[in-house]
Amino acid sequence: MTTTHTTKIPDIYRDPAFDMACEQFRLIANYLNIDDDDRDRLLLPKRAVLVSVPIHRDDGSTSVFTGYRVQHQLTMGPTKGGTRFSTSVTMGEIAALSIWMSWKCALAGLPYGGAKGGVNCNPRELSHRELENMSRRYMQEMIPFIGPRTDVMGPDMGTNEQVMAWFMDTYSTYVGHSVNEIVTGKPVYLGGSLGRRESTGRGVAFLIERALDYLKIKPAGCTAIVQGFGNVGSIAAANLAFKSGMKIVGLSDVSGAYYNAKGIDLALVEKHQNKKGDLEGFDAADRLDPEELLIQPCDILIPAAVDRVIHGGNAGKLRCRILAEAANGPTTPEADVILDQRWDEIFVIPDILCNAGGVIVSYFEWVQDLANFFWNETEVMDKLFRIMDAAFSAVIKRAKAEKIPHRRAALAIAVDRVLKAKQTRGLFP
Ligand code: NAD
User: Fold this and answer.
1) Of all protein residues, whose CA lies closest to atom 17 belonging to ligand 1?
2) Superfamily for 199-349?
3) Which of 70, 323, 340, 357 could staple 98 via S-S, CB 3.0–4.6 A?
């Protein structure tokens, strides 16, 4: 349906990532013939909070950081979403990520809406004590807006189990007893779930295997390039290398990109990272321009860092068979137009499917915390892979039936579900 309707976007959301989320929504809303009346409330976040986060620095001075939390929709249950500590964080970026979280949860069939939060900061420049001060103060500022039945936080770029433990402790201190279920991604001994830390990367590797099987390609000997060697990227790479027998030929982090056609020894990478903190100075592979890394030949390309890295300028140059979108929003709508034309060359596993492992096991963690009954790792992984397998099959089925790209199929399933829930409930949520 073509429509003259345009959503009036509040200025606070102005950001390239938010524009991208809007454009993706516009395309899918047109495809699904969504009424003008339903479009704004499907797209615009329910709540957006901006807070000042003042902390005492180690040198005795005071710094004030800006923190955000956006709850996209509370129609199907509480909202769920990670917290990002990064210099890229803006209200618009966080809002875009909250929208993508809604579609991701709906595609996986989880009883959640999407949320996201973050603090604009460089966590690498903060001491341990400063990071603790900032994490605790951010959570303190968020207490009026969140809750285990309202909005459940989790980790994202720049945050980890320790930060989640500080969040949980700060919230629990306020309430007066331990509230494990206020965050996910905690250490296992504080009510975290077995398998949560590895879940996103393992889910990415599982779907790559699933896609290879679908394409009738044997995994052993396939080559992979990973952009962003953090939690998600490093675990996906380790699973592909050690479990599936693939060769990791390229990897990068914020400090630089490295390539070795003969394969990169991940044990050496881990040793280097443990010693130096990042990949800077890694000498068992050639250093190359980070942009060039993405267009090196490989079977599997895994963007696992930031959004909008595959764009109109490089989508035509990609030389991979599978594009596994581990990051949120790595591919722009302009790149999608090109990738849609290359559908028989490049098999796209769209982000809301590819990296859903994290939120699925977060859901398991929340359920285990609420029930105070914990599962073993095999139970967690079996349940995870079953949900991911079903979501993958549903996307492929719809894409085939309607002859549409995988991203459109994934978004169609997800947006349809949220739309039905909103129409059935009414205007309140
Ligand atoms: P992380 O902080 O553990 O790692 C991020 C990595 O990306 C780091 O190695 C960093 O150096 C690198 N990086 C940052 N900017 C880069 C750039 N411009 N080029 C190359 N590398 C760069 O974060 P993470 O948890 O692994 O998250 C990575 C991506 O996966 C993000 O897009 C995040 O939103 C998404 N994601 C994470 C989870 C999760 O469970 N952690 C779940 C779903 C999606």
Assistant:
1) 254
2) NAD(P)-binding Rossmann-like Domain (3.40.50.720)
3) 70
